[in-house]
Amino acid sequence: MVWARIAIAVVVCGMALVARAESPIAQAPERTYDKVIESGYLRVGVYENFPPYSYRQDGEPAGVDVDLGRRIAEALGIEFQVHWIIPDETLEDDLRNNVWKGHYLAKRRIADVMLRVPYDTDYAYMTESTGEMVNEGVVMFGPYQKETWQIAYDPDDLEGGVPTVAVFQYNPIGVEIDSLPDFYLTSAFGGRMRDQTQHYRNVGAAFDAMVAEEVTAIMGMRAEVDFLLATDPDHRFALAENGFPGIARQQWDIGMAVRHTHRQLKYAIEAIVDRMVRNGEIAAIYERYGLRYSQPAYYDAILGDSGG
After folding, report:
1. Which of 5, 75, 107, 235 is the right S-S partner for 102, CB 3.0 to 4.6 Å?
2. Is the pTM of this model over 0.90?
3. Read out DSSP for the chain?
4. Residue 79 vs residue 29, higher pLDDT
């Protein structure tokens, strides 16, 4: 282990010497608060093709996170620019590639702030086996929504509703592949729902399968499910009210992230979003998209529990 650490140190020192001679083009830009304001725009990182949070509508950016990003830029007195994020294997990769270091193929392509990041102390300070912080290059802040899981089902197929997820021992349910609902439904209750769990590339494809009567239900994040149900002209699907035994955290707060050296920008954005949570502006954005909104648990003791 000692020799390995020495070898790593030698490599790092060599890289540092090379870096001094590298062109600034190879480095992620240091867009501090002053530089962001001086540039006249805020580059907001949102996930690509992720309705209802962030997607393209008639070629233009749309979604609740896009609208929030626009409002933040407006409050700073500058223009909004979208930074589309293509998800990598892990959230840590997304943060590193889009907020902290930049992707190795495009170091200059980086967001000033990234939305839809879990606001969770345990995650923010998670460490490697070596004791190094996994997300040391970013600061996570500004919770603006409470997220939760949701099942929607076809009442014609499930006449008794979904009193418990155990009904999916006998009825097919669609999920996004490699998502938490996928892992949950294929492993809970000793794997008794595994054979009835059908996998799709995303929740939208699972919904299409429910419309085509290939599955009796879908499971995804609540806003995703709400948004999809609103597209059904027959309004024939229903929302389940069951819990999810075995999922340790069924609700979680969603916030933002900036590079750890950009704390002044973080404070400015945090103040804007805090005001929007308190005065109902963020709830109004969700309402415009026909979505239910729950204020973050962070605010429950301050503003009162909003439920949901």
Report:
1. 107
2. no
3. -HHHHHHHHHHHHHHHHHHHHS-GGGS-----HHHHHHHTEEEEEEETTBTTTBEEETTEEESHHHHHHHHHHHHHTSEEEEEEE---SSHHHHHIIIIIS-BTTBTT---SEEEEEE--HHHHT-B-TTS-BTTTTEEEEEEEEEEEEEEEE-TTT-TT--SSGGGGGTS-EEEETTSHHHHHHHHHHHHTTGGGEEEESSHHHHHHHHHTTS-SEEEEEHHHHHHHHTT-TT---EE-----TT-S-SEEEEEEEEETT-HHHHHHHHHHHHHHHHHTHHHHHHHHTT------GGGHHHH-----
4. 79
